[in-house]
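User: Sequence in, structure out. Go.
Assistant: Echoing your sequence, followed by the C-alpha cells.
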Amino acid sequence: MNSRPAPHPALVDLHSHLVPDVDDGSASIEESTRCLAALYGEGVHTLVTTPHLLVPHLPDDAAIDHELTRHRRSYDTLLEAIEGKPGIPALGLGQEIWAPDAAAMRRVAARVDVGLAGSNTILVEFGFDLRGRHTDVIEAAVAAGRGIVIAHPERYRFAEGDEPLEVMRTWREMGALLQVNAGSFSGHYRASSPASLGLAWEMAAAGLVDLVATDHHGIRRTGVSLGEAYEVLRSRGEGALADRAMAEIPAALLGDHVINDRSAALRTPSEDA
C-alpha cells in the first residue's frame, strides 16, 4: 500500500516577485493570479510579494517615493482582480531592498512604508558578487531598530579568502536572519550560482537556515516550489527545520507590525485562505 505524504502546516512565503509589471517578475495580473493559485495549491496560505527596491538606482527620496507608489498601485490593482477568488493566499506587500552599503540602507531603514507587509522586518539583498562582508548594512538596519532578513545568501559569490559559512555566522550574530531559496535545495540555480546547492545543504546542517522562500518570478521561471522544498527537507531528516523556516518563523515575523491595523497590511481575498 502506498502511503500518502504527511500533511504539512500552512506555509508562509516572504520573498516573491508577483506584483505585476514592476520588475523582472510577473508580467501581468493574469500571470500573478495563476502563480498565486498554484502556490496555494501546494500549501502556501500566506504570501508577501517583494518587488525589487534598487536603492542605488534611485537618486533621492522623491525617486524612492515614486517607486514605492508604483509598487503599491500595481499591488492594489492585483488585489482588486483577485478579490473574492477562492484558493488564493492571504497577500501582503513588501520589498526586496538592494542595499550594497550602509549609505543605501540608511536611506530606507527608517521609512514606515518599507517592510514585509507592514512589519518591522526588511528583506535585503547585497548583490550576487560580494565586495566585503556587508556588516555595515546590518549595523545600519539594526541601529534603525529594524529586523533584517538577508535574501538567498547561498547564491552569493563570496570574496576570495572568505569562508561562506563563517561570514553567514557573523551576519546572524549581528542579528540578521538568513533566507534560502526553495529551489536551491534541488540545484535549480546551479547554472547561475554553482555553489548554491552545496551551500544550501551545508547551511541546513550547520543550523544557519532561518527561512525558506520561493523568490518566485512568475511562470517563466520554474523550480521554486515551497511545497516540494518542504518534502525534500523532510525526506533528508530536516522536518523540524522545514516547519520552522517555512511556517513558524515567517509567521512570527509578520506578527510584529509597526502599523496598528493588521488588515491594512495583509489581505485575505477568500475565506478559505
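User: And one key feature?
Assistant: Residues 61-82 form the longest helix (22 residues).
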